[in-house]
Amino acid sequence: MTTEIAKKEGFKTKLAKVNDTYLPMITNQLQGNGVNMSDYQKQCVMNALAEINNTLEQSNMTISNVDQQTLTQILLQIASLQLNATATPREVYFMTRKKKVGNTWATLLEMGIEGDGNDAILSRFGRGIKQVHKFWEVREHDGFTYPKMKGLETTPPEWEPTGKGKVVRIVYPVSKTDGTVEYLIAERDDVVRNLSAHISNNLMTETFGIAKSKYDATPEQKKQIDEKKKEVKDLMKDKSLEDLLATDDLSKYISPAWKEPQSRESMIVRKMRNNLTKKYPKNFENAYVAMNYETATDETFKTMRKDVSESANTIEFETEPDVEPTVPAYDVETGEIQEENNEPVHENNEATTEQDPF
Questions:
Q1: What is the phi/psi pair of residue 73, to 5°?
Q2: What does pTM read for this prediction?
Q3: Predicted confidence (pLDDT) per residue in 170-229, tens digit
Q4: Using an 8 Å Cβ cutoff, are 270 and 116 in contact?
């Protein structure tokens, strides 16, 4: 009992030192960019540091083991966007990965914004928004009537829940500062764009066994790889969401969180929510906060940055042999544990095009 109390006291002391190190630094950097930190923003940073520390403690690591530039950027994003790592449901989460750079192993810290984090951002920064109400999960056997507009007047939608069937649409009632109410609606069928973009992202570094990597490929091999990619993308044309998920030849390019019965529906619901909350106009009133939002939520940008950094100088990154992963790898949207090699899911939350950035 005494040992357990000592461990807890030691953890508190260590965490206090971490807060004393990072909180002033984050405060100064934000002030230098025209952002005066509120007490709540400071609490968000401290909560984030506690959660990061917990994540690292699980693998007998400390904050000093992770890349400091990445950690600082994450904390700046947390403070700017006022994301609370200890909220319930959680708004943000953290994970670590080990990657080999030449003969050196590096621990990379990653942050993911949960669906409720996007709701919080919308509530805080949404243009003209007073309150974002609890969203509706409308199922296929529910009664639902769409809103109607007559001039400037809106007839509200009607929903009769039955609790039966798949979720086919998400509705966010939003109270505006001008006294009106807006109803944001996302359809299940529109998630086909998210899944198509997800598959396209996973194809970015795919070589189909033709070359070791796309950076090592000869011009002839690159041509063959491009032809194979075109064949896969042709399979995606004019398919519904359910058809994409049921196509065997596409399955290898779709992460388990999209395919497994226990996570598929939560993934689709999360995408519908994100399609509404992320695209709604926002007013950050500070260019630095806006920049942090873009870098934290632009999945295409993060995928490109990750792909370039891990392939720079054609250094091969591989999982450390005979060493357990630092923590289990989780899918960025659902928190489901990934099954294969602790490799990250190349998820694209918002892209609506199949264009390969490379």
A1: -60, -40
A2: 0.73
A3: 999 999 999 999 999 999 999 999 999 999 988 988 999 998 887 888 999 999 999 999
A4: no
The C-alpha atoms of residue 222 and residue 213 are separated, in whole angstroms, by: 10
Q: What is the C-alpha separation between 37 and 43, in angstroms, rounded?
A: 10
Do 96 and 56 touch, CB atoms closer than 8 A? yes
Q: Report, in angstroms and rounded to the nearest whole number, the Rg of the chain calculated over CA atoms.
A: 22
32-41, 295-304, 324-333: which has the highest mean pLDDT? 32-41
pLDDT (average), residues 23-31: 92
Q: Classify 134 as helix, strand or coil.
A: coil
Enter the DSSP assignment of 330: B
DSSP β-bridge partners for residue 66 = 107
Instruction: Give pLDDT tens digits for 67-96.
Output: 888 899 999 999 999 999 999 888 998 887
The CB density around residue 131, as the number of other CB atoms within 10 Å, is 12
Q: In 3D, which of 188, 191, 165 has the Cα closest to residue 254?
A: 191
Domain ranges of the chain: 118-188
> In terms of C-beta density within 10 A (0-12 exposed, 13-18 middle, 19 or more buried), how is residue 138 classed?
buried
Q: Output phi, psi for 11, to 5 deg.
A: -65, -45
Nearest to 99 by CA among 336, 242, 311: 311
User: Helical H runs in the chain?
Assistant: 2-32, 39-57, 68-81, 115-125, 191-203, 219-236, 241-246, 248-251, 256-259, 261-277, 287-297, 299-311
